[in-house]
């Protein structure tokens, strides 16, 4: 499963997913985001039971504001339409997986 580019047009569909959702809020110019991005992509490839999405905060400021993203990268886990976990800053793969497993 590949990483889905999430925007305001497809966000409601993503949020309503029956799968656990991981959202990666990032920007192209952000160094720590570039460190986390390959990990998020690995998790998407290795774990089809999750829906993995990326949100570019420069292109989707409304979504960033909705989740009160103050620094990037910010990772958000949604289950059954509700945010169950949120963390800012680069995280190792094991921590990201632990967030998903709750």
* Shape type: globular
| Structural Rg | 12 Å
Mean of pLDDT:
96
Task: Write down the secondary-structure element order.
Answer: EHEHEHEEH
Fraction in helix: 25-40%
Fourth CATH level, the homologous superfamily: Glutaredoxin
Work out the oligomeric state of the chains in this entry. single chain
Give the end-to-end Cα distance, rounded to a whole number of Å.
21 Å
| SS content category | alpha/beta
Annotated CATH architecture: 3-Layer(aba) Sandwich
What's the CATH topology label?
Glutaredoxin
Total domains: 1
Number of strands: 5
CATH class: Alpha Beta
β-strand amount: 25-35%
Low-confidence residue ranges: none
Major pleated sheet: 5 strands, mixed
Present the secondary structure layout.
Blueprint: E1 4-5, H1 11-15, E2 20-26, H2 31-46, E3 50-56, H3 61-66, E4 74-79, E5 82-88, H4 93-101
Parallel strand pairs: 1-3, 2-3
Antiparallel strand pairs: 2-4, 4-5
Entry keywords:
alpha/beta, 5-stranded mixed β-sheet, globular, 102 residues, 28% strand, 5 strands, 4 helices, Glutaredoxin
How would you sum up this structure, described in words?
Helix content is 35%, strand content 28%. The longest helix has 16 residues, at 31-46. It has a single domain (4-101), classed as Glutaredoxin (3-Layer(aba) Sandwich), CATH 3.40.30. Strand 4 and strand 5 form a beta hairpin. It is globular, with a radius of gyration of 12 Å. The chain has 102 residues and is α/β, with parallel strands linked by helices. The protein has four helices and five strands, in the order E-H-E-H-E-H-E-E-H. The protein has a five-stranded mixed β-sheet.
């Amino acid at each position: 499963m590949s990483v889905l580019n999430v925007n305001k047009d497809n966000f409601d569909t993503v949020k309503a997913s029956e799968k656990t959702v991981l959202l990666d809020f990032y920007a192209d110019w952000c160094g720590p985001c570039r460190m986390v991005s390959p990990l998020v992509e690995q998790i998407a490839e290795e774990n089809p039971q999750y829906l993995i999405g990326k949100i570019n905060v420069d292109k989707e400021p409304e979504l960033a504001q909705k989740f009160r993203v103050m620094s990037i990268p910010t990772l958000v886990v949604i289950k059954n339409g509700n945010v169950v976990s949120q963390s800012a800053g680069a995280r190792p793969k094991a921590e990201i997986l632990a967030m998903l497993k709750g």
